[in-house]
Amino acid sequence: MMRGWWIWIGLVLVTAPLGGCVGVYETTDGARLLQELNDRGFGKRYEGDVNEEYYVGVGDVLRILELSNPELTIPPVSVQSDGTISLPYLQRVHVGGLTPDEVSNLLNEKFSRYYRGLNIQVDVAASPSKRVYVFGQVTRKGAIPFTGDTTIVELLALVRMNDLAHPSKIHIIRADPREPLIIRFSLSDFLTTGNSLYNIQLQENDVIYVEPTYLGYVILFMERLLRPLRSLVLGANAIRLATVLEAELENLQDLRDRQIDFNTRVLVQEPTTGDGK
């Protein structure tokens, strides 16, 4: 009987997410949603291969230099969410998705209406828009800055796998709606053989997932199973501690009242005369 209940619960957990996905295609709202879904790459507005040539993204900070016209050398500017930067005379200029050289050429062209013989140079002062994403059994999860020319071994050394990580089950996910790619990497094989064939060079927006070991799966499952119980125990302990503290406060208040009463009696006590009467 218990086995039947477990099977039923398992089917509900497995089919519920699938039902939600299928529902997108069955409704008119779902059809409209599909028109807005990603149709290329990772899904960001500006994409490219930063290993081949850097391109400007949202949040990047650009440094603009023009030595012959110091007034055009302005403090570093940040690329706004719409892909533009604000500059004197020109107001907002769209630079998202362009390379630094293309931005230089664009600014030279636009400022030529006000200056002659320009040689504006643009470089990148900071590039927070370039990231890879790490999940699973590592000590440093989430979005990791990507500077280019980084291999999977270098990244693993940076994020450090924890004690539950499976060194042979590391997945590099290169998302794309048409040609997705998932590469499985074994750090154990790399360390054993020294063969760098599979020391993949990462790309911007790669997703790296480090699986747990079989024992790790069990430990993580038990942690999730016991988490509500732990919350109840902590809640009960908190209630017990609050009760004890409340009782101690009442005792302190009682002692304080007694001290005040004693001091009052001493102050109002009539002084004795010299003959003792």
Q: If you had to describe this structure to a student in words, what would you say it looks like?
A:
This protein is of the alpha+beta class. Among the domains are: 61-126, wza like fold (2-Layer Sandwich), CATH 3.30.1950.10; 131-212, Outer membrane lipoprotein wza fold like (Roll), CATH 3.10.560; 216-256. Helix content is 42%, strand content 20%. The chain is built from six helices and ten strands, in the order H-H-E-E-E-E-H-E-E-E-H-E-E-H-E-H. The protein has helices spanning 2-26, 28-36, 100-111, 152-159, 187-193, 214-268; strands at 61-65, 74-78, 84-87, 91-94, 121-126, 131-136, 142-145, 165-174, 181-185, 207-212. The strands form three sheets. A five-stranded mixed β-sheet has the order 7-6-10-8-9. Strands 2-1-5 form a three-stranded antiparallel β-sheet. Helix 1 (2-26) packs across helix 2 (28-36). The longest helix is centred in the C-terminal third of the chain and has 55 residues, at 214-268. Mean pLDDT is 78; it is low at 11-27.
Secondary-structure element sequence?
HHEEEEHEEEHEEHEH
Structural Rg: 33 Å
Classified in CATH, the superfamily of the domain at 131-212 is Outer membrane lipoprotein wza domain like
Order of strands across the biggest sheet? 7-6-10-8-9
